[in-house]
Each structure stands twice: as C-alpha cells, then as structure tokens.
Amino acid sequence: MLEAYTTLGYLAASTERVELLALVTSAGYREPGLLAKMVTTLDVLSEGRAALGIGVGAGFNVAEARGLGLPFPPVAE
Q1: pTM greater than 0.85
Q2: How many domains does one find in the chain?
Q3: Tens digits of residue pLDDT in 34-65
Q4: Structural domain that includes position 56
C-alpha cells in the first residue's frame, strides 16, 4: 500500500482540478505538527485542492500499530 501524502503530492503535480485527500488520516500515526505541515504543504502546492479528514483511523489494529513501532495501549487507558 502506498503512503497517502506522498501519492497525493504526485497527484497534485499531475492534475489540475481533482480534490486531494486521504479519507481518514489516523491521528495516532503522525505527530500533529508534522501532519499539519504535510497537509498545508499539499494545499499550497495544489493551489487549495487539499482537504484533511482526520480520526482514529485503524487505531484499533494491533498488527498495524506494532508494524509502525507504535505503542498499543489497552482500551481502558
């Protein structure tokens, strides 16, 4: 699976009218300041065509979290 924001950067350069977004970006997988910078950069380079959908994403997926080297706390936390 391709990384969403790298792919959207390519699409920004290859298209002129398409709205660019990842349907849901998992807030737990990217540092908030970095995510804001990524989406802002995409928005500037695409002349306002970027949008941000943010949520927990697949935060419930133990295998995905471990594969990214992220902690996976119990639900009670």
Answers
A1: no
A2: 1
A3: 999 999 999 999 999 999 988 765 556 778 77
A4: 4-67
